[in-house]
Amino acid sequence: MKKSGAEILMESLKAQGVDTIFGYPGGAALPIYDALYDVDITHYLTRHEQGAAHAADGYARASGKPGVCLATSGPGATNLVTGIANAYMDSIPMVAFTGQVPTSLLGKDSFQEADITGITLPVTKHNYMVKDVNDLSKIVKEAFHIATTGRPGPVLVDIPKDVSSAVAAYEDPGPVLLPGYSPAFKPDPKQVSRAARAIAEAERPVIYAGGGVVSSGAHEELKELAETLLMPVATTLMGLGGFPGDHPLSVGMLGMHGSKYANYAISDCDLLIAVGVRFDDRVTGKLESFAPNAQVIHIDIDQAEIGKNVRVDFPVAGDVRLCLREIMKQLQPKVESAWNGTINKWKKEYPFSYVDNGRIKPQQVIQEICSATKGKARIATEVGQHQMWAAQYYTYSRPRSFISSGGLGTMGFGFPAAIGVQVACPGEAVFDIAGDGSFQMNIQELATVVNYKLPVKVAILNNGYLGMVRQWQELFYNRRYSYTEMSNPEFSKVAEAYGAVGIKITTPSEVRPAIEHALSVDEPVVMDFITDPEENVLPMVPPGEAINKMLG
Amino acid sequence: MRHTLAVLVENNPGVLARVAGLFSRRGFNIDSLAVGRTDNPTVSRMTIVVEGDARVLEQVNKQLHKLVDVIKISDITADEFVDRELVLIKVSVDPSLRGEVMQIADVFRARIVDLGKKTVTLECTGNDGKINAFEESLQSYGIKELVRTGKIAMQRGSRYTGFTERSQKMNTNQED
User: Fold this and answer.
1) Do the chains contact at B169 and A122, CB–CB below 8 Å?
2) pLDDT, tens digit, 9 for 90 and up, residues A456-465
3) Can you give the pLDDT at residue B130?
4) Where are the beta strands (DSSP E) in chain B?
5) Distance (Å, rounded) from C-alpha A505 to C-alpha A362?
6) Is B168–A322 a contact, with Cβ atoms under 8 angstroms apart?
7) Which among A3, A85, A349, B134 has the fewest CB atoms less than 10 Å away?
8) Do residues A45 and A451 touch, judged by C-beta distance below 8 A?
9) Which residue in chain B has the smallest CA separation from A323?
10) Would you call A180 an interface residue with chain B, using a CB distance cutoff of 8 Å?
């Protein structure tokens, strides 16, 4: 039976198990939207295409399934770009579909035409423009295959309007055959043996675990490795939850705003076991001083990451979960050593702390959210100080519970991402921990959460500043607060205007009751916590400094 | 050090942009890049000359490998290979000096491919050393226009960088 390109697209999506799409309609996507009207795929209408991309991203991070977003050509497509770049930097499986002007109008600067495949070339794992309706099902299958295998990432499929309108027969495209694409999965046994020997011989090993642990589902293997050899585990921002934050071997996050004990452990270790990480500058600080006395094992699915930023002594290329399993086979349990004693001493000596001065402290808000939710909520964040406090003061005990923009640092990510998380995890408590600046970057998505009755809880740590930028201005620009002070609306009233619950919290004693109330209602809630305006995120490694040289 | 890479890519639209974009985005220094299709119409071959140390080369290799359209990369620098470049040079020559230019062409085994009233256009092939010398020897006559193809290269003897069943990386190793 003949079908339109748009109907073929729907068939192809269903063949991939897609039941959820986040999107925004427009002229060039009309045939696709028309076909969506008749299928059992739930489409969430966001209020901005960027919201759709971030929601798809949040959905993918929480569920482990690829996130799908859809927009029209031109401005619709370009509005997706930040969301796509965000997913690319954090290796999130996403497939973005864009409508495009008809092929006869391509290249003529037609109304709402943008070269979206050209624009997204550097921020997608791969992208396609479908020129022939007969290629559509094959391309969709390839897109999902590429997005979800190997190192995951976003793939964009651009579909001209005449292609989605054209008629053809839907055929199962058969197995994916891409001669240039073969994600390596199984590690080389020699690499595994060398790494295992180095681990067995190390006296002061530290595991440095990142987002790759979460995306490959290697959290159980990581825990087994750490427990068998009693090795301390530091995680990156992306790795939070990949190892239980309340585990005795956890030293929390490392890097610019990591724990002192994590950074001391890295600086003093003799073996660094880097698992699913990419040695980002926010983690390493001054490269020459990063783990200066250590040999480095680097386990990663992406060979290009191995040796990209630091010298690696023992590369292990492959899927992190399989690599850890193979390495484990060659290792014997160890007993507690002096190194464990040193780490525990540091943990006692240098805990996270803040000064209580009678105002609402952002750290207190995060701690209260953690305690009220018993550490079981899914926490999405925007980007800035609140993000770092959310990383430091909430204890993440399971993977996919911390949803944050790591690589790109996208303000405005958290709220739409929380929408995707709530869609993926109905019935769970989902928070967006936000700053007053970040929240206003996608505040319009309040309409979406109200529209779909998604009970996302937004906790704004409102200090009236672009807090992290202000902190840098305080520390490095002589307190010249150039354009970082913000006058804000009454967020609680904005929430109410959209039909959500709004609460303004001005004193420390109101913090816990507000959170409890938010959790007790099955509706979207915006909590506006008026916090100490000049609180800083500490400890902090000044940019370009060694990570054991921390302020605070 | 300069490296010569033979890169087999799928003959898809946008592949050149992907490869060139990768080089510029990552700050890799391309000396030359020549591309054309192979005997298999679905496969193109790029000869990329890139400048950099071993670390840069490793990254170039690995990053190129990540492109879905890239099938195979061979660094043939250490192998025996033949390389050629084609140049077309248009020189302003007074008819009285044409003889001299033709002599130079003879020395370099170049050919005159066009004659104008006051110009001569020559073609010459060879490795970049020869092409550079040829260009230099014509400099004094006044070069009006010059175009070089960039280097293409091929290993000597029985070694080759072809598209074979072995180089086709099938997606069969993804399961546990």
Assistant:
1) no
2) 999 999 999 9
3) 96
4) 2-10, 29-37, 43-51, 70-75, 81-92, 111-115, 119-126, 143-148, 152-155
5) 12
6) no
7) A349
8) yes
9) B176
10) yes
Q: Which residues contact A158 (CB under 8 A, 6 or more apart)?
A: A77, A97, A98, A100, A116, A117, A127, A128, A129, A130
Is residue B169 very low, low, confident or very high in pLDDT (cuts 50, 70, 90)? Answer: very low
Which amino acid belongs to residue A116? I
Threshold 0.90, pTM exceeds: yes
Nearest CA-CA distance, residue A297 and chain B, Å: 18
Ranking A302-311, A487-496, B166-175 by mean pLDDT, the lowest is B166-175
Catalytic positions of A are 49, 111-112, 161, 468
Q: Which residues contact A280 (CB under 8 A, 6 or more apart)?
A: A236, A255, A406, A407
A145 touches chain B (CB under 8 A): yes
* SS3 (DSSP) at B5: strand
* Length of chain B (residues): 176
If one counts every other C-beta atom within 10 angstroms of the C-beta of residue A372, the result is 18
Given a cut of 50, whether residue B20 has pLDDT beyond it is yes
User: What pLDDT digit, counting tens, does each position of A412-428 carry?
Assistant: 999 999 999 999 999 99
SS (H, E, C) A103-151: HHHCCCCCCCCCCHHHHCHHHCCEEEECCCHHHHHHHHHHHHHHHHCCC
DSSP bridge partners of A102: none
Is the pLDDT confidence value at B166 over 80?
A: no
pLDDT tens string B99-153: 999 999 999 999 999 999 999 999 999 998 999 999 999 999 999 999 999 999 9
Q: Residue A442 is which amino acid? A: N
Give the closest residue to A190 by CA, choosing from A316, A42, A296. A316
**How, if at all, do strands B2-10 and A167-169 pair?**
unpaired
Q: Which among A180, A303, A307 has the least Cβ separation from residue B68?
A: A180
pLDDT tens for residues A315-349? Answer: 999 999 999 999 999 999 999 999 999 999 999 99
Phi, psi of A102 (to 5 degrees): -55, 150
Which residue in A307, A228, A229, A252 sits closest to A274, CA to CA?
A: A307
What are the Cα distances from residue A511, in Å, to A32, A380, A515, A518?
46, 19, 6, 11
Q: What is the ipTM of this complex?
A: 0.89
Give the minimum alpha-carbon distance from B71 to chain A in angstroms, rounded to a whole number: 4
Tokens describing residue A248: 């005795």
- Other CB atoms within a 10 A radius of the CB of residue B27 amount to 9
